[in-house]
Design goal:
Chain lengths: 107, 230
């Protein structure tokens, strides 16, 4: 399978799985979902966001220069700014601009 | 016409966010080698912001089908929860039902979850139009980002950090609003452990299994599982 066809297959898989997830409760549960499913629906999101933070930073090189400094500085900026303003777009924009400036101009 | 206007007004708070995040996605995809058609079809057929950001990484890295299935399930597991709480509103929505279910993103859910619709509007059509407006903003933003990335007068190197920033900001938000931090810590430390043990190429599946296992074991200790009213 060519690279393009394989990528298209993966996009289709993402689409179908996302649709199935959104439709599953309508297909399976009439009115109520099992307590375990509801429990997972509540606790998985924060855990998976934690997982995705690590996933995004997985290729950061901590043992060679610049020792992950742009990621650490921009990441802390996002945490601090978000805790202060609670505005998700502002946090993302400021963190991204800071990271771009740090990697393009400083490190 | 009244329903269209009411739905547009309702969707306005999502507009800026979707367009900006969409632009970020379009540029990110472009930089990873995925141009206009990829961006358009992903925003059209997947319509899940964080999953599309993560998806570009999976495409570029040539991930296995199994990894893509499991990652999509985990990243989008929360949508299961949205659908469960919208069962009563969407169950009898007739011809609008398939699209309403397809387009139930975080933002659409946040606008519609209280079940309220403006007076004098037809509820199913109103919810359908709100979803459709949101979907349009998302598509518009990502297409703009894709087209813009070739002609921007400055280097977009480093724009991929927008995905990291999105998740760090979401993590901070969850942390500040949650009563119980066990799930967040489990996700962070469980993944870190798997990254160290399995390496950056194959830690994702073990991490998802470990997180689900640990959260199942912690069920009695986490307060969230006890008081739910759906």
């Amino acid at each position: 399978m060519s690279g393009t066809a394989y990528s298209a297959l993966l996009v289709a898989v993402m689409s179908v799985v996302t649709i199935l997830l959104r439709a599953a409760p309508f297909l399976i549960f009439k009115n109520k979902a099992p307590a375990y499913v509801i429990y997972l629906g509540q606790v998985l999101p924060p855990a998976i966001i934690g997982m995705l933070v690590i996933y995004c930073l997985k290729d950061t090189k901590l043992l060679s220069a610049p020792f992950g400094a742009p990621e650490i500085i921009a990441g802390l900026l996002v945490v601090g700014l978000h805790a202060w303003k609670r505005n998700i777009l502002l946090s993302i924009l400021a963190g991204t601009v800071a990271y771009m400036l740090l990697t393009q101009l400083v490190f | 016409m009244k329903t269209v206007k009411a739905a547009f007004m309702k969707s306005l708070p999502v507009m800026a966010g979707y367009i900006i995040l969409g632009i970020g996605f379009g540029i990110l995809a472009h930089n990873a080698g995925y141009g206009f058609l990829w961006v358009l079809s992903m925003s059209l057929f997947i319509f899940a912001g964080s999953m599309q950001y993560v998806g570009i990484g999976l495409l570029a890295g040539g991930a296995s089908v199994l990894t893509v299935i499991l990652t999509t399930v985990m990243v989008n597991a929360r949508h299961l929860f949205y659908s469960i709480s919208m069962l009563r509103y969407y169950r009898n929505a007739g011809c609008y039902k398939p699209y309403l279910i397809f387009s139930l993103t975080d933002e659409t859910y946040s606008l519609l979850c209280d079940g309220k619709v403006p007076e004098g509007t037809e509820p199913d059509r109103f919810r359908f139009l709100v979803s459709l407006f949101n979907h349009s903003y998302w598509i518009l933003g990502s297409v703009i980002g894709s087209l813009l990335s070739g002609i921007l007068p400055f280097s977009t190197a480093g724009i991929e950090f927008s995905m990291t920033a999105l998740f760090i900001a979401s993590f901070t938000e969850q942390w500040l609003s949650a009563k119980d931090h066990i799930p967040a810590v489990t996700g962070l430390l469980g993944t870190l452990l798997c990254l160290i043990v399995f390496g950056p190429e194959r830690f994702l599946i073990p991490a998802m299994l470990l997180i689900t296992l640990l959260l199942t074991l912690f069920r009695n200790r986490i307060s969230a599982g006890k008081k739910v009213d759906i």
